[in-house]
UniProtKB/TrEMBL annotation:
<dbReference type="InterPro" id="IPR029063">
    <property type="entry name" value="SAM-dependent_MTases_sf"/>
</dbReference>
<dbReference type="InterPro" id="IPR002295">
    <property type="entry name" value="N4/N6-MTase_EcoPI_Mod-like"/>
</dbReference>
<keyword id="KW-0489">Methyltransferase</keyword>
<dbReference type="InterPro" id="IPR002052">
    <property type="entry name" value="DNA_methylase_N6_adenine_CS"/>
</dbReference>
<dbReference type="GO" id="GO:0009307">
    <property type="term" value="P:DNA restriction-modification system"/>
</dbReference>
<dbReference type="Pfam" id="PF01555">
    <property type="entry name" value="N6_N4_Mtase"/>
</dbReference>
<feature type="domain" description="DNA methylase N-4/N-6">
    <location>
        <begin position="74"/>
        <end position="368"/>
    </location>
</feature>
<keyword id="KW-0680">Restriction system</keyword>
<comment type="similarity">
    <text>Belongs to the N(4)/N(6)-methyltransferase family.</text>
</comment>
<protein>
    <submittedName>
        <fullName>Site-specific DNA-methyltransferase</fullName>
    </submittedName>
</protein>
<dbReference type="GO" id="GO:0003677">
    <property type="term" value="F:DNA binding"/>
</dbReference>
<keyword id="KW-0949">S-adenosyl-L-methionine</keyword>
<dbReference type="GO" id="GO:0032259">
    <property type="term" value="P:methylation"/>
</dbReference>
<dbReference type="InterPro" id="IPR002941">
    <property type="entry name" value="DNA_methylase_N4/N6"/>
</dbReference>
<dbReference type="GO" id="GO:0008170">
    <property type="term" value="F:N-methyltransferase activity"/>
</dbReference>
<keyword id="KW-0808">Transferase</keyword>
Amino acid sequence: MEEQMTFEFEKRKPIKGYPELHWTGKRPYTSTQYYPAQLKESYGERKDGWMNKIFWGDNLQVMSHLLKDYRGKVQLIYIDPPFDSKADYKKKIKVKGKNVTGDTSSFEDKQYSDLWTNDEFLQFMYERLILMKELLAEDGSIYVHLDEKRAHYVKVIMDEIFGSDNFRREIIWDITVLSGFKVSAMNWIRGHDVILYYSKTGNPIFNKLRQPHTQDYIDMFNKVDENGERYMVAHGTTRYLKDVLNKGKPYGDVWDDLLSYQVLQKQLKEVRNIEQLDELLTATKEVQNISNVWDNIMSFQQQPTSAENCGYPTQKPESLLERIIKASSNPGDLVFDCFMGSGTTPTVAMRLGRKFIGADINLGSIQTTVKRLLETAKTCGEDSFTGFDFYNVNNYEFFRNPVEAKELILDALGVQKFDSSSVYDGEKDGWMVKLMPSNRIATKADLEELKANIPYSIWEKRKEENPGAPVEKIKVVCMGHEADLKASLEQDLSAYKLEIEVVDILRDKKDLQFKRDADAEIIREGNKLVIKAFYPMNLLQKLSLQKETVDDWKQLVESVFIDWNYDGKTMHPAVCDITSKDEVVSGVYDIPDGATNIKVKITDLLSESLEMEV
């Protein structure tokens, strides 16, 4: 059976003379099991037998699933993983339309927290980078986007996994914004991100890109020959300006020139006004050249009002991904991003004629990406791969916002919740309940916080008073776990008699009843499908806390998708009513001839969806 399939990895032996990073709880990662995926929705048509893929789930499980068909087949991986920034990342939620009463018409909804304990960040990255190497083709490359806090650790890990010989470049992306707290801090102003570029082998795909020269450099060509051509003499060599402009300047590792063609036009017009200008512009337009310090690709902190900005936390500009994808892949190649976020990587890959696979554990990411891809597909040429399928891995059906998952799970289990000062999250029927991270498989390292904060003095007293009885009954709740999780906890706490139970939500979720987040009234009126009302309960509750009153349910909706002939398994939306800014959905739709089993999916401003058959 597919579910029992296991993939083994090559064991990596330490290389004499090379450093290796160690951390508390470092564990080898030499195999993984296959995880099934469920096709939930399908958009567009296949091209040359290919459909792009979007996955919702833990990327460790997603990549384990992909190994079956895509091991060694991915030409380019770009990831923008958590930086261990200790920050909460929020999305601004704005009610659509202007008929809203209250002090404000928007609030911030936390999408995820970038919080890590002990050394779990390093183990988290270690395991995923191993899987990424397995997916890369022999001519493949990987770009890992980080900041200065963790880049040096991740580089040593990547040296171990990919080999230091396959380190290609450290790219500096200038994101300096001279405002906010950092301006007043008594320190140098942080102004860049780091992108680590590695290849799988010594022969990666690399298309050399070019950029225009600076005006200062052009001004150095201050001599004119008898034909009116500008030139300079340097180190005994004569260089003509037209030759330099035609070749362009190779990019380094500081990136500073994304508006390069517009700048190039301006430069050429300033050089000389001759009939050959248009010909020269045409010749140079496609041969712009680039370095590894990138300081003219503007972040959304630098251009917050950009039309491209969809309000998703940590969103990266399309120009950044365009540079990477053009340099390290060719049309028709496969691009992968398993920390997809706002969907910039698949969006640019589609536009540039690449195939793509994307994944994220945050449902808000999935909804944002689907919306962007559908809009991008409208403007793509016939050479682009615009069709895509949406899958769940391991059926995270009830999983909405990772930040709220804890509350959902505790409520579904009927746990009496404790405050944050307790090592446990709550109690049920005499069992102390401890939740493991809800966005990935629980590992033995995740038990460290529990073991470090156990009330051992109380346990000792219980042990003395009643030696034959358990000092505690502990229920560990997780979303999948390592096979020896329970045994490891029992061994580490073997000085005490305990009762330990591991509850796997993915395995046992059929026994749980999670609250329904939304409801709707949808009816047929003749040949029309009419959404009369929509009640997104979670969103309405948050709006009530903001003292907001909404006049029309459409103000709460991001999109309405309709499949007129739902097959009971996969949605194939024929209607994709997607809004932008203050626009609202129609709410009334013509029912086509031949419509049979109608399924409607309504997605609210929190990216939570209600699916109903009509």
